[in-house]
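Protocol step 4 of 6: record predicted structures for both targets in the notebook before any analysis. Target 1:
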Amino acid sequence: MATFGKTNFNTTVYAASRPTYPPALYDFIFDFHKGSPDAKFDRAVDLGCGTGQATIELTHFKHVTGLDPSENMIHAAREMLANSDSQPGPIVDFVQGSAETLDFLPDDSTDMVIAAQAGHWFDWTRMWPELARVMRKGATAAFWIYSEFRLPQYPALTPLIVAYDQGTDPHKSVGPYWQQPGRSILINHLVGIPDGNSVVPDAFEPFERVYFTGEFLVFSGAEAHALRWLVGEYYPELPGARPVVLRRVMSWDDLLGYLKTWSALHTFKEHHPSDSAHPDGPLEVRFWKALRAGVERGGEGVPDEVVVEWPVAMVLARKAT
């Protein structure tokens, strides 16, 4: 992803402001991996590792490598690892390079390959053959993304979020500034990633698509912090939806910090440097204020914190031979 490789992209703010994946998500992947009688826990690789958030969670494995094309991200990941107070675990290293070219890995050498919030950027016509080469029998590939955030306490604000994220007005929306086709693949929950067997016949079994997009929480009135119930799915057109797993209670300042990490916003600012002088604040602040105003219109004031949820889509594959 080109924006993350630019020298003026703030990886520290990025790492601090992005949501972290819950243990339940990793347990789901590890359980899938254990479902193979050939499963081993020697080597794992995290593709498009960014600042290493997911890399360091692969604690079941003896040797873990994070790979990213951005020198900035690799530097941040190595710095994070050096400053970590974690207990002794796997040997972890970080390598700069392309996910589609895994020359540092021998054939049949890898037990798990993951990509967190990165797979929508890959060239899958090259990716699947390379995975088929490096993965040993019974190895797992798990690639997941989180899509457009939602505020389950305030479902009426969803159209405002969609307009800001996917709109076409180049002065009011970041929509025109997302790098394509990657963003469209993410918004469509990785449906655009081809089945690995369509690229390398009979290499993967099973090949699954999993959606943590259902049973979102809705809160009610003055009891918003105590009363909640399950009412449906964010994307009912996606099959077999599982309950949402990526959820965070954020202050409004934290939410603004998250909005500032969007790569499309970074590109918008390059195209519109004068936007920072807008009397109502820069674009992301105007959107943030609009969200707060929408909450206030509900008549109960703006709480100090807000629940944020992200639907998650995942592609799972196991090496067949």
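Target 2:
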Amino acid sequence: MRLSAVRALAAKVELPPHYRYGMNRPGSMADRIKNPPGTRRKRILVEPIADHEWKFFQGDTVQILSGKDAGKQGRVAQVIRQRNWVVLQGLNVPTEVEWRYTEEGERVRVSLRTGRVIPQPPVEREDGIVLEQWIDGPKDTSVEDALERTYGPSLKTFQEEIMQLQGIVETRCFRKSYWY
């Protein structure tokens, strides 16, 4: 993959002022179809929830308390904070949760219906890898090998280092070149 393509993927997508958040990732082709450039729609006003008050995280298992899917359980597949949405796999309704403090002073999430503590799921990267659950495979580089120092830096050029290793003595003195 070209470096320019990698940089384009890593760049943060700047959204227009009247952008309407949906189920697709901003900047993707499906999102561009839903939000074509130059369109102006009526703005949907949603009061955002502060980051420290947000209760649902990707990977949570929640149970639906009311509606047509009451009693079903689902895993949180996507969280869209700009619209205060939580999308479940196959379902789309979350459970009621609030933040509380334990006797030790630790901040935890608690289900309002059952009163049980809901542990926070491990954070997944975009490629689906959970760092806490990662197990090194046979082709992974070990930490010792990665930290081993195998090169001693010097002020010689590559050719001068090779000549020194081979025992070749150069009597000529090259003119300095300033290529930069």
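Step 5 preliminary note on target 2. The helical segments are 3-10, 29-34, 143-147, 158-166. The radius of gyration is 28 Å.
Proceed to step 6 after PI sign-off.
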